[in-house]
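Why do we care about 3D structure at all? Because function follows from shape, and shape follows, mostly, from sequence. That is the central idea of this module. The next example makes it concrete: a single protein chain, its amino acid sequence, and then its structure expressed as tokens.
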Amino acid sequence: MANQPRLSTTAIISPQYCAPATNPVDLVITKERTLRDSFTVTDTNNNVVFTVKSSLVTIVTSHEHRFLCDASGNPILHLRRSLTATNDSWKAFRGESEEPKDIIFTRKLSSLIQLRTKLHVFLANNSTQACDFTVKANLSQSSWKVYIGNSDNLVAQIKKKSGTMFSREKFMVTVSPNMDYAFIVALIVTFD
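And the structure:
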């Protein structure tokens, strides 16, 4: 991500998650597979930055819930998936809320029929049809890139390292300086 234009601070969740530096933020997201998916997000020094806990998925409901928590276990975001025959979307709410007034962003597939996965992200205050962020997948390389809107302005890169029977699945993440890395983590844990 060298030679990228310097962005002003882009706080989606909170300015405290925007590293005011000239260097990108590197994170590792480790996914645990049990009855409930859970994730641990660490920095390059192996310090826990975030954890994500998931609800037990049931066939009775079309909703799945994940909670992004800070290193102390305090809920930052409630991520709720809505899965129907015509829609697969996630909404992010502040804290543990599900109230419409607490929506921060919505993540949707750009279309249901796709050769390459492309996700559109709309911030809560967006009153247009244009997305605020785009996630483009290269599934053959198990990688994703996050761009501002439909531009070429790259703000994050994600590379998945598949787990084996004895190792866990990991996402290696690089977030541009001044970009909200909690927001990028929230997007990544909605990828499955």
